[in-house]
Amino acid sequence: MNYIGSKFKLSSWLDEEIRKVVGNDLSDKVFCDIFAGTGIVGRTFKPHVKKVIANDLEYYSYVLNRNYIGNHEKIKNQEELIEELNNLPLKRDLSIKIIAGAEEVIDSILKMKMAKELILFAKK
Ligand SMILES: C[S@@+](CC[C@H](N)C(=O)[O-])C[C@H]1O[C@@H](n2cnc3c(N)ncnc32)[C@H](O)[C@@H]1O
Q1: Are 39 and 65 in contact (CB under 8 A)?
Q2: Is 5 a pocket residue for ligand 1 (Cβ < 6 Å)?
Q3: What CA–CA distance (Å, rounded) separates 77 from 35?
Q4: Residue 77 main-chain phi, psi, to 5 deg
Q5: Is the whole model's pTM more than 0.70, yes or no?
Q6: pLDDT in tens, 80-117
């Protein structure tokens, strides 16, 4: 996730500086990302350390870190799960709340067959 407070551009510098302090072998270290945000800092260290602890006040960060830090094994039936998600029925009320008044965005980004129909429905 790209956002203004992300430390993505600093991650290689952090890696270098931390190794200068604790040494190059991080394999027995626990890395604590206390304001984890997008999780980019913890992700940088994850392949090299014993464990990453990600902490943040916000739910968005939990979701991102649960995925990027928590998931470490390939999902065996991922194709099946993606297929299931792609075939979920549209939730009409929810879609209407999100897209009402945003015809151009929906047209250009989602390109969903249902979008125009839902927008017309929302205007009623
Ligand atoms: C600058 S951002 C994240 C930086 C992060 N290293 C990154 O690259 O995405 C700071 C984060 O600190 C979190 N935060 C602020 N105050 C906090 C608190 N008291 N406890 C836990 N998280 C907090 C915010 O929710 C936000 O996600």
Answers
A1: yes
A2: yes
A3: 33
A4: -105, 40
A5: no
A6: 888 888 888 876 665 555 555 555 555 555 555 555 55
